[in-house]
Amino acid sequence: MSLSTSIRIDQALYDQAKTDALSEHRTIAGQIEYWARIGRAAIDNPDLPASFIAESMASLSEPRDQATPFIPRSRQE
User: Fold this and answer.
1) Rounded distance, CA 77 to CA 2, Å?
2) Nearest-CA neighbor of 26 among 14, 15, 34?
3) Distance (Å, whole) CA 66 – CA 44
4) DSSP secondary structure string, 12-69?
5) What is the pTM of this model?
6) How far apart are CA 37 and CA 8, in angstroms?
7) Residue partners of 35: CB distance under 8 A and separation at least 6
8) Burial of 31: CB neighbours in 10 Å, binned 0-12, 13-18, 19+
9) pLDDT at site 67
């Protein structure tokens, strides 16, 4: 069960979250939570680009049976 808390945010941020949520098939709250997780990871890992963090987080949510196995170049023919 998920608990919710009301917060106040800038209207422009809300509007951007609403726009991005539509294109990413998320709720507005889900979009803001997504941004917060990426932001937290970026703060915790300042040497990594935010785009890399976002892509890495997205890959973690993909089904493992659809993943492409990693093959080191040394083993590729």
Assistant:
1) 49
2) 34
3) 29
4) HHHHHHHHHHHHHT--HHHHHHHHHHHHHHHHH-TTS-HHHHHHHHHHHTS-GGGPPP
5) 0.71
6) 18
7) 17
8) buried
9) 75
